[in-house]
């Protein structure tokens, strides 16, 4: 009787083991197909860009540094700013107030890359230095900035964000002519270490 | 007899469990060593770059926006274009015909970075918007463009390409002087969600 | 007796299986939380940047190609070089000697992005071509270069570094005015294929 119970228990064991073996090897030996259900970390942050226009040297956090032959580096170019490259060091805040205490800086560059409408391409990092977070999150991606929301890729991180990956949803929270804009970034990290 | 069969079956169990434990913990608690056998998704796409040269403003999809001190932004620099930075918004097609219906745009920048031979460095995204695919794929990497094929990294994606990673093999499919070139990109994605 | 031993062994089995099932499914169906203990590959490399200053055309490995309106492309800008974009093709060596045989080239760009102190943002690749390694490693990230050490992200790779990810710790190993600097990069890869 005891032996027979042992033999019966043996069957589901084998099935379970085979199942485990299957899903385990599928994640280790071939390309991975994973569907994360929810982020392992989320952050909502605002950053503020004040573009140098020849008059605001003291306050500016960004400057046009490159432009096509038909434009200059003080005024954003025609043709929807096509070809303008901007370097920036923008304060990051937890709310939409430029004057709130910054929790870090957004640093890097963006470039306008379409003649017909406003569209940008971004390469930058959040450099966070607050009681909550110390570390960097790096982003690249297309920013079709006339869309209400647009997603860019989180491609790496350091410190508290060591090796992270994910997606950030950007929203233009405010803009004032060609001098100031504020972006809200909903950062969703799906790989945390 | 029954009991002895149970005991014999017990030994491979333990071995299997130990094996499973080993490979499972190795992927979760330490650095991962994975050898993908084949991509989870592949795409073959062409993109077309028409560089502004002072005469082709209507058709140009790209413009030199930065160059070293010895050069200007209308004609590609000497010394194998070293230091020229180009911003682009190129149509993407499914075949090698510039006039085929575009399935998206390749947007971003490249820069020439070697004095002795033509070599570029790329940072750009495919922004796909077709019945088949909606989303972005972002690339960075060195492009030794005199090589028949060269690989760049797929570092992230959004939409249909959420969180993707992989490698793209680039081939120069055509070039006409310093105005037009066409690249074929064999995109191989090894992480799909 | 034999049967009773089988039944007793059965309990830890189930626990172990449940444990395995838990950790295995947690890595495949939801966002991943992984804590790598040690890199799967490490490299210590030096790269050497000689910035064009109008006099050193033959030796220069880098050139300012973009700058804000108040600066030019021969001399690094005031305000801690804010807005200067530099394209580079630097030799990589295994030790700190500029004249050691190079094992590859560091190619890409950096930009200075802060008015108050020296800070840079990097986008570049190591293109390695030696008996030990053939392939590329791509980096992006903030470089607060006045810090003794700072981490940037390894976001992709090709060849021997296919699909790799990790972190690189940069250290300024030497600098001579505004013409030469040497960085030591401790590259720690946590995803190897």
Automatic annotation (TrEMBL), chains A, B, C:
Main location, first listed in the record: secreted
Gene Ontology cellular component annotations, sorted alphabetically: apoplast
Places the protein is found: Secreted, Extracellular space, Apoplast
Name listed for the protein in its UniProt record: Dirigent protein
Similarity comment: family membership: Belongs to the plant dirigent protein family.
Subunit architecture: Homodimer.
GO biological process entries: phenylpropanoid biosynthetic process
The organism's place on the tree of life at top rank: Eukaryota
Pfam families: Dirigent
Signal peptide segment: 1-30
Keyword Ribonucleoprotein: no
Function according to Swiss-Prot or TrEMBL: Dirigent proteins impart stereoselectivity on the phenoxy radical-coupling reaction, yielding optically active lignans from two molecules of coniferyl alcohol in the biosynthesis of lignans, flavonolignans, and alkaloids and thus plays a central role in plant secondary metabolism.
InterPro entries the UniProt entry points to: Allene_oxi_cyc_Dirigent (IPR044859), Dirigent (IPR004265)
Keywords, comma-separated and alphabetical: Apoplast, Secreted, Signal
Keyword Glycoprotein: no
Organism encoding this protein: Acorus gramineus (Dwarf sweet flag)
């Amino acid at each position: 009787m005891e032996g027979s119970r042992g033999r019966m228990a043996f069957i589901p064991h084998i099935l379970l083991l085979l199942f485990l073996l299957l899903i385990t090897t599928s994640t280790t030996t071939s390309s991975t197909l994973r569907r994360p259900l929810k982020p392992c970390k989320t952050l909502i942050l605002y950053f503020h860009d004040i573009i140098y226009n020849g008059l605001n040297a003291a306050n500016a956090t960004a400057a046009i540094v490159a432009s096509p032959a038909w434009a200059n580096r003080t005024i954003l170019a025609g043709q929807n700013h096509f070809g303008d490259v901007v370097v920036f060091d923008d304060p990051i805040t937890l709310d939409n107030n430029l004057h709130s205490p910054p929790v870090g800086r957004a640093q890097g560059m963006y470039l306008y890359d379409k003649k017909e409408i406003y569209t940008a391409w971004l390469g930058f990092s959040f450099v966070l230095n607050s009681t909550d977070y110390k570390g960097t999150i790096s982003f690249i991606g297309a920013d079709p900035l006339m869309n209400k929301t647009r997603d860019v890729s989180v491609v790496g991180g350091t410190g508290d964000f060591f090796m992270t990956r994910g997606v950030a949803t950007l929203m233009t929270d405010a803009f004032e002519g060609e001098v100031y804009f504020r972006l809200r970034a909903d950062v969703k990290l799906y790989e945390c270490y």
